[in-house]
User: Fold these one by one.
Assistant:
Number 1:
Amino acid sequence: MTKLLEVKGLETRFFTQDGVVHAVNGISYSLDEGETLAIVGESGCGKSVGVMSLLRLIPQPPGKITGGEVFFGAGDDRRDLLKLSDDEIRQVRGNRIAMIFQDPMTSLNPVLTIGFQICETLILHMGMDKAAARKRAVELLELVGIPRAVDRLDDYPHQFSGGMRQRVMIAMGLSCNPQLLIADEPTTALDVTIQAQITELVKRLRDEIGMAIIWITHDLGVVAGLADRMIVMYAGFIVEESPVKDLYANPRHPYTIGLLGSLPRLDEARAHRLTSIEGLPPDLVDLPKGCPFYARCAYRLAKCLAENPKLEPVSPGHKTACWVDVRAGVPGTMQAGEAL
Amino acid sequence: MSGTGSTTQKLVEVRGLKMWFPIMRGILQKHVADVKAVDGLNFDVYQGETLGLVGESGCGKSTTGRAILQLYTPTAGSVLFEGRDLVKTKGEDLRKMRRRMQMIFQDPYASLNPRMTVGSIVAEPLEVHNIGSKSERTDRVRELLKVVGLNPYFINRYPHEFSGGQRQRIGVARALAVNPAFIVCDEPISALDVSIQAQVINLLEDLQEQFGLTYLFIAHDLSVVRHISDRIAVMYLGKIMELTDRDELYRNPMHPYTQALLSAVPIPDPVIEEKRQRIILEGDVPSPVNPPKGCNFSTRCPKALAMCKEQEPEFREYGSGHWVACWLHQR
């Protein structure tokens, strides 16, 4: 497999009145062509800011990408996205890397027809004329399963339901045959039966078109059947990275273990108490010197307070940033609610 | 949980509950149609149990919760609470009844007044119902904060100083203040992060055990509802499609909508997900202004028969306590 994307030491900060927010703190990962990578974490863990930084979509000021490299493309084509000029990055956005967002209600312009919005991309990026763009727009809407696509082209966004709008967004995302589709919580605002429709659709399109996907979510359920590999983020750091099956079967970071334990499962045999992670994530303005998860960790040692562990391999393809070998069990017990 | 408890006394009996919202048009505000948000519900809530109410957005689950508590005046039907019909109870009598039933809201950011301190928010129900002297109320607030896992020292702080999970705890403390018997939890955890959700679920379970509370737990997330509930009612477009014990619902879902809903819920395990067959429903939920003739689910049902589009199926009991409204079982 050839590498499509390689992120090295990416660091994004927000300079606010209350201080410097350390949103993304030197994350490195890579993505192969046609691979699906899930980035999982809770609100404020830097998962969205991390991928927005790839396309330089961070509002500046207050935001700034303060370090790192983002190589995209293969062979001669391989370039650092962070070093491109504004014109050059605009050629990448939408064209080679497309993005779909969480809220299909706010990502479409309410006063323009769906057809106009899809054709706009095609005319700008693909240099099509109006007639060709319209024809292609119909094909795209059919591809994402919108019934009566020809008639619906002149409808406005409010005439579509949430699930249908997300399909329109996906159609727009795919309009330029991107090599990479970034999906930022695309099913979070949708109902569960519609969520199933959309994930099935993305799976089918991935297999047909062969694009790579970065799927950002807080929901460990949705990506279980979708992703090849998974990254878990906490407080702007990658704390665990692994092939998807290995991650669910042998989670190696206490945070991942906590997340999996705090999920009620539909197939659980009987009601049991959820193992909640006590306390709250750290303040990103004032990050602790050691491991960011220290205050909430059930496995913590004195060493964890002094030094933040690096992401190290524990088995083939599986890396974790933790000083402790969690397989040995919890060393000593933590007082419940101590961190509150 | 208390589902295995001996009591089967009914706390709430809902019969033929309808909640229609009129649509008015024109200068004369002519009544042209109704949004049939809740359209004829029959169910009971037993003492000490948690009844889960699941469904997708717009199915009327929140409206049901509010109509039971008389936050809306129902269009038709009755709600018996401890044997008294709330729909017929008015004014001061109803206000007194409200001490027995409280609500926890979905959005912990919108449901707390940003200009009031935590102390005055939690004490407000006590003031409204004239309970205790000022110092007794303060003691009670401190005790309540402790019960929900907040530091009583926070009493003079404002809501913005708290995280989402902590705010939801404040909402829980406020609901508990008047010692209610029945609490309607309207999506109490959907606005929270996964690790915080578990904290609030555990808290609600502990409180139920400690105070013998009865919950109506409204949520769209079937795995959460299955975890916390003793029995589950599945709603679709203003009607209950199926109602049964939590394990029975999972083991033996009888309604095609329940089957589709269960198959759509992702399970956080790639090995299981690989083998699962999904029932993907086509299309969207019809408008509650103009629900389909016959069964409300007939437009999307993969197993629909000719009669499903003609006549509405009855909500019937099969086996002990397994209620289904579907023609497939009534032929």
Note: Chain B touches chain A through 49 residues (CB under 8 Å).
Number 2:
Amino acid sequence: MLTRDVITISVASLCLVLANCGVNPATSVASKDRSAALTTGSARPQFRTVELATLAHSWISDWTVIGAKTEPTYVEHVRISRRGDRFTLDADALGEQFGRTELSVDDRGRIAVRACPRSARCDVRPTGFLATVQVLAAARRGQLAGRAPVLRYAGRSVACVPADLLWGKAPMTDATVSTMDLHEVLDPCLDILTGAVLAQRSRHDGSFAGPTLDEGTLIVCDLTTRADQRNSGSCPQAGSR
Amino acid sequence: MLMRRIRNVRFRNRYTPLRALILAAALAFGLTVPLTACGDDSGSSSESPSGDKLKVALLAPGLTNDGSFNQVAREAVERLERDGRIDVDIREKMADPAAAEPVIREYATQNYDLIIGHGIELVEPILAVAKQFPKVHFTIAGGPDVLPKATTNVEAWTYDFGQQGYLAGFIAGQIKDTRTVGLVGGPQLPFIQAIHSGFKAGLKDADPSRTTKEVYTGSFDDVQKAVEATTGLADQGAQLVFTSGDGIGNGVASAAARHQPKVLTLGVTGDAGGLAKQVNVTSVELDMYPTFKSYVDRVEDGTFGGKGYISGLVNKGLVVTPFSEGASDPRIPADLQDQVDQLIADLASGARKLPSLQ
């Protein structure tokens, strides 16, 4: 019987991050299901936070995340991959392929569009499931300052990045659109180990909403270790897309 | 709910790794072995647990409390169970075809009357197992291309994208003081374009004087682009915005709520962080009960098999969600639900015909 939830902690990559957010790495690796979001005696929950630039530099660089986003009338299948500095997003719904979006980010934090589906509009300000690229690029440019709360989603630790740190009041790409805040909707929640966007958190009520991968379908493949490839037939081989 | 969970646990307990190993070994030698012969102490699999009720298994790719595609299937089988028509087992997280196939096979081996695969992920494993169990009834689900895959013991299901859009467009045409209607879509995929074509047809039937402006964001997942698109449409005069892209609905609702004057929306699913009740009139969504009931009817009367079933307006497989608080907006007529009901009745009686929605 296949193991559906592939969760492997890369100790080396996590130690830096967890130490930075005040967690004892040894304890956390040993008890990976322990919630990182803690409450105190106050009425408002106090989340642990992580320093974003450190987090971005700690991510492993060879992974694939497979999941589904369920909607009222269909299910969108999503596959996000990172191979080094290249990120790809493939999706389909109702048997229709959306095509592949591929972005790269260089050492100076410059983003390039390598592939864009015919029906899509790709730009160098990636959002949605490719928000990881924006975070990494900002970190490499030295322009990513701030911390993010660490929450639990689908049994994993995720850092929910305040969207205004990433996009702020960005100029519109469409001249007909008035200037407005873009950030008061959803914050992308990035897997601590990989940086993959697993969920989005509503600014209005704190719920995981919108483009969020259904926790019942989520598979995270760490291709930097052989163990994961043995654990799930759904994970690709290292080096493949 | 509690009863179903207990049954699920019982079923899962029967499917132990040891038994999976035995089954795998048996298959390797070309044998089929009923798992009930492997020390199951829960009774004969051929015995109906409750007399004449059909034994039904529902397989869902995700969690059936998702408020979305998987949940509508669970609600339908629960209603059939309340009707006293079926006993049901629900299996969640069946998105991996390789993992789903042995589960389907086990239900078939246990002589379940009907095995419902509610998701395109389950098409291939169900078709593979169905060939080996000709007396068991199976269903598959997907887009229109799934319909020709029906066989003598397999029926196929999809829904009518054009009619989904038509009903939303008809409703848009009833809302007052909205001369310009915006449409926000995700990627320009054929099924999304079909929904938009249906919307325009419904709007035209309801009020030919309305004009539309349309934007595709190119993504189901980019909420920021949906905010931009909706704001742009509102700035261009749209007083009502329809969205066909569920994942971007949060962006549509957010932009609509912030715009001055407030813009109404159609098609925002879920509560969009509490915003939907402020701006969204309604959405057209699936009701799987008529579909599943028709399966049960045909299994019982011996006519099941080889058919495609399309959820639409007349068979009430596509329905409007309850009007939200946003429906208290003075632009929304008090008799909107009555008008929707009349439309469906007229279509059912033939008094009104749908236009071509190709």
Note: Helices of chain A lie at 11-20, 25-30, 52-58, 131-140, 163-166, 226-231.
Number 3:
Amino acid sequence: MKARVLVRPKAGILDPQGAAVERALPALGFEGVRDVRVGRLIELEVADPARLEEMCERLLANPLIEDYEVLLEGAGG
Amino acid sequence: MSAVGSIPGVEQAIALGLTEAEYELVVASLDGRAPNEVELAMFSLLWSEHCSYKHSKKLLRTLPSSGGRLVLGPGENAGAVDVGGGLAVAFKVESHNHPSAVEPFQGAATGVGGILRDIFAVGARPIAVLDSLRFGELDSERSRYLLEHAVAGIGHYGNSIGVPTVGGEVYFEAPYEHNCLINAMCVGLIETERLIRSAASGPGNLLVLFGASTGRDGIGGASVLASAELGEGDEAKRPSVQIGDPFAEKKLMLCSLDLLERGLLVALQDLGAAGLTSAAAEMASKGAVGVDIDVARVPLREEGMEPFEIMVSESQERMLCVIEPEALEAVLGVCEHWETAASVIGEVTASGLVRVLDSDTLVGEMPVAALVDDCPLYDLDPRAPLEPIYGAPQRVLDSSGEEDPGETLLALLRSPNIADRLPLFEQYDPVVQSRTVRRPGQSDAAVLALPARGQERPGIAVAIDGNGRRVAADPYRGTIEAVLECAANLACAGAEPLGLTNCLNFGNPEKPHIAWQLSESVRGLADACRAIGVPVVGGNVSLYNEGAEGPIYPTPVIGLVGELPDVRRAGALGFCSEGDRIALVGPFAPEIAGSELARLGGRELPGSLGELDIPRVLAAQRVVREGVRSGSLSSAHDIAEGGLAVALAECCLAGGLGAEIALDDTVKPLRALFGEGGGGFVVSGGEGALRALGGGGVSVRIVGSVSGERLTIWSGDARIELSLERMREAHGALRALFD
Amino acid sequence: MKFGVISFPGSCDDSDALSACRRVGEAVQLWHADHDLAGVDAVVVPGGFSYGDYLRAGAIARFAPIMNEVIEFARAGGYVMGICNGFQVCCEAGLLPGALLTNVSRRFVFRQVRVRVLGEPTAFTGTLERGAELSIPVKHTTGRYFAPRATLARLHAAGQVVLSYAPGENPNGSLDDIAGVVNEAGNVFGLMPHPEHAVDELTGSTDGLSLFASLAAAAAA
């Protein structure tokens, strides 16, 4: 099954990339943007989607500093 | 041979960059047969300017390329000089201008990756990277974007692979606005007897491709981009961007060096522009053999790639080697250890042909000589321009600079061409490998320690230099100045030049005035090399750096490697001892025309530069070098952009000490303070040591002392008095770009 | 006394660390794919870009075969020093508290910085005086030390913050200017500055040597 894992900095952790994007957008005329967070997208094909959670906890994300979200294809994600 | 697909015609050949006459030559070299798609792709790349040097080869042959301490000369992946103790230093500078203009981060990163491969392709372990960059003025958003991303890209690759970036230079001038220059130089160290060449030999020997898999990256990239002017609306010509993977390259580098150390290789070649096509043809040509390559055995990262795509792909981080069949198992074992994929893709033959197979089907067959040697070489049609080629630079300074010389000095220190490069250098690791005795900002040249020989601590110094504006004013003398300044940088570190590499960045050589710039510059380069007594070990040419807005300044970038007997006495540029006397050494004859001050004032380029008295310049370099080596000088710095006042300010800032200077009033203050011209040094030391420098007829004028925390200069009636703090603030102007 | 310095694919400062260790003791290279520590008395996890720093700095190296041995060694009280990328690896492996984030500048930074030795002497700072200031280079993109406030308070209280950037020297935005921490047991040390690049006057300073010397003395005791 195809899955996507979205990893982003935890709320409250300074995200310099997000801050840089947030500063850059108004300079290009895009007003009214806030709370920009830059994370990463991991696409993978897995035999057993039930193990995704564990993959995230152990490798794909660092739970101390990052939140993650698992999206399964065809599951409305 | 069997025809595969339709046979392209002359229109396709022209679309790929060949001329009609060249297409006819291709047909003739195939005994009257029209080339098929694979063959045409290979010919068009190998006969491109980028691969064949067809507009510059005749000129390059006039450069001195032998003698001195040369152990590997032009024609190999990189040249090398003997540095004693059984060791050689391999080095080369190369451009990645066109890819960087498309995508500066990846362009600069893969530029570093490419030059690193050239160095370890001769078996040397890369020990240093330097870079030379040119962008448009910093008030342009595009220039700031290119600068930021190119610097990040260079750092990304060099830092990740663990090779220190120890030096470099950057200038901002309007003619580079649409054609930035990204030149990278790499220096490698090797036991001389282990140097390996790229000539394939031994029919029956195997061709092994190792490293990354092959995709459609940069198909038609370097050669198309670097062999014609690109205008607006030429987006379709832009190839897919090559993505650099320094992690893969690190493994590839260690794997290559390991293979060499075990004596498993017959020949080694990196894959750069024109990929497998160029690597295979070059190896076969140098060894006067043939090669068969089966594209079906090349590991691919994309599906459905055509044979011609596989042959011309510019996927990064790949090497091609020739091995004896018995060595195969051992070679594959070493590659596995370094987690580097390797595949046998063909073999060496006695046929004198490059034959391309797709499993059992022959899809291309060309004489090696036709691919590599038969490309026509063109004579240039140089003609000095009747009108100035370049407009006056944008005026930044309102005054002439005379009213308040202190403010003028601050304006110069703030100028992006002079301001402290630390905000850029901080993005590079200069210390990995534990050899760096002088980092950027500590001396005019980087100094690297070589392995100790008993009690001796020998080392090398490396520098890269170029000044396009002065070459634009006077291509012959400007180029001589650039070489001598680079040698002066080495002298300040205590080093004597051993070999030179260069990258010639110019506009369209088919235009007579560019041809003139190029021929005059090469004439200057040859004369300068003979004057300082070093061979050109290799280099690179980047032409067609121009567009509708005109050409870049002609920019020969010079890289020098020199030796010093004792790195414990490597020179430093900063004043370091209160009370030391300061002297101006050498035949320094400053002029405002063509200077940074003239640029800030919006003055047009002069029609020529003042003539340098080369023997006297070299004599001055010699006494400075000896003074540094003997330890009698506390500091040494050459006078370059911004003239004497800027040089003094730099010595103060680097050492954190002030100075009191009084210049005689034989020269007009503005010229004395801010005029430029080669041949001058600012040195400090004890009075006796400074006077001793003048023994051999070299001009030495003691002009003041190291003292306090201010720089005070009297020049006739003019007076500069500035605190270190104010100068530091102005000099830090580039910091704001990276906040 | 014998050091072992790990080499992962992508390590850059492993040779530098080996030479630094050899100034104060014996040292051998440990290969990432190996399964034993060759009887070393202390392990150095060196700097660089293990596995290209892909995914997250240190995230993949943490699962290299040799790391199982290192984790076991550390749990049994063996001395481990993680430098820069090695610090990141130790945090990812759970040997040290906290995590390293991208510098506030978002850029790689090389800088000779002054760092201060804090707290009671540890195995890594035993030969140094409290409050001593060292000049050592940093070079990294991912060096901003982070731990939740409660963890930080615990670290400070237990004297686990043993190295901090001197005032005004913090190059990356680390919380509380933290440059190096030890684990609760005091046998695992992670730091962002590179002491192996401060062991020779010729190439910079010798201030980093005392950290290796302290470790050698502790491991030999």
Note: Residues 14 and 77 of chain A are 27 Å apart (CA to CA).
